Structures are given as structure tokens and as C-alpha cells.
Amino acid sequence: MCDAGLRLNARGADEVWIVRVHVRPEKMTLFQALVQAEEGLGVVRCRDPEKRLQEIWTTAAMRKELLALLAGLPKALAVQVVEVVPWRPGL
Questions:
Q1: Containing domain of residue 26, as a range?
Q2: What's the CATH code of the domain at 46?
Q3: How far apart are CA 46 and CA 53, in angstroms?
Q4: What is the pLDDT of residues 33-44, one digit of tens each?
Q5: Which residues, 6+ apart, have CB-to-CB distance to 33 below 8 Å?
Q6: Does some domain include residue 7?
Q7: Helix locations, the chain, DSSP H
Q8: Half-sphere exposure of 44 (CA within 13 A, CB side)
Q9: Residue 78 resides in a domain
Q10: Global confidence as pTM
Q11: Measured torsion, CA atoms of residues 32, 44, 38, 80, in degrees rounded to the nearest 10
Q12: Residue range 37-84, pLDDT digits in tens
């Protein structure tokens, strides 16, 4: 997956967003594959497997599309958006 849209610099840092979601442990791999299958949507990483917390790093331009995808996921995945925050140094 291309992450060219996620390059950070002093002027563009406010263009990067982090969407944190809870995902059941047995569904994490499937969840990551579904999000990453959408070219340019974002980069997925496991923030804390014990707390079931995944992060999706995306751009401001793709944030609404990402949230729409998350809202449209099957209920069986039980994905719950925890927070949507702009990237800041130290996150």
C-alpha cells in the first residue's frame, strides 16, 4: 500500500488524522485487510492488542471516506470507533 499521502512535515501535520477503533482480537487481521484493501485510505496498526485497540492513520482528505467505510462494515466485525484525533508530535 502506498503511504505517500501520510508524509509528515511542519506545515502538513494537521492534514494527518488518527482514527482509533476497538476490534475483537479474532477479527483484527480481517479488519486490517479490509481497510488496507482500499488504496490510499490509510495505514492500519495495532496500538494495543490487549485493549483491542487499532489505529488507522489517514489524511484529512480521506477521513470522511474512512469513517464511512467503518460505519458500513458488517456488524459481525463489531468495530467501534473510539476517537478521531488530528496527529500531533508524541502520539
A1: 12-86
A2: 3.30.70
A3: 6
A4: 999 999 899 999
A5: none
A6: no
A7: 28-36, 63-71
A8: 22
A9: yes
A10: 0.80
A11: 70
A12: 998 999 999 888 788 899 999 999 999 999 999 999 999 889 999 999
